[in-house]
């Protein structure tokens, strides 16, 4: 069958509509219920990133290490989760400096970090 004959048999609008429908279907999440879980997961990672920014400003490097290890241990190895953590870290780091805030005690921040790590673990436990 020649190319010209095939193109005459299948209208281009029909092909274009089929391609668009397929692209739309492929762009949808596999499980709509997972969207809420994903939002909670990003929120948990971002919240931990906020604590990371404070820990960096206060030079609590042991807590920084612990938070990074928690993200690696619990979150999927996807760039978007790492970016959420890094973006929240950067925002908190800059806000802390801009506000000229004082560092919490190591014990206070360590307790907060522990709670937030537990939140990250819970957010990804259902996977």
Describe the fold and architecture.
The protein has helices at residues 3-9, 12-27, 34-57, 61-74, 79-98, 106-125. The chain is mostly helical and 127 residues long. The termini are far apart. Mean pLDDT is 80; it is low at 14-35.
List key phrases describing it.
127 residues; mainly alpha
How many discrete structural domains? Answer: 1
Mean pLDDT: 80
Q: Please report the number of helical segments.
A: 6
SSE arrangement, N to C:
HHHHHH
Biggest sheet: strands, sense, closure?
A: none
Q: What general outline do the C-alpha atoms trace? A: globular
Uncertain stretches: 14-35
Could you give the count of β-strands? 0
Q: How many angstroms does the end-to-end distance come to?
A: 50 Å
Structural class: mainly alpha
C-alpha-based Rg, rounded: 23 Å
Strand content: under 5%
| Share of helix, binned | over 70%
Produce a short descriptive summary.
This protein is mainly alpha-helical and 127 residues long. The chain has six helices and no strands. It starts with a helix and ends with a helix.
Furnish the topology, listing elements before pairings.
Elements lengths: L2 H7 L2 H16 L6 H24 L3 H14 L4 H20 L7 H20 L2
Helix pairs in contact: 3-4, 3-5, 3-6, 4-6
């Amino acid at each position: 069958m020649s190319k010209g004959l095939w193109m005459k048999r299948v209208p281009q609008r029909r092909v274009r509509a089929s391609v668009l429908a397929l692209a739309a279907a492929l762009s949808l999440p596999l499980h709509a219920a997972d969207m809420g879980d994903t939002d909670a997961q990003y929120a948990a990672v971002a919240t931990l990133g906020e604590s990371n920014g404070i820990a960096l400003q206060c030079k609590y490097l042991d807590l920084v290490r612990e938070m990074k290890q928690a993200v690696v241990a619990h979150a999927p190895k996807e760039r978007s989760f790492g970016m959420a953590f890094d973006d929240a870290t950067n925002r908190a780091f800059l806000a802390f400096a801009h506000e000229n805030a004082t560092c919490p005690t190591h014990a206070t921040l360590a307790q907060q970090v522990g709670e937030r790590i537990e939140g990250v673990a819970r957010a990804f436990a259902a996977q």
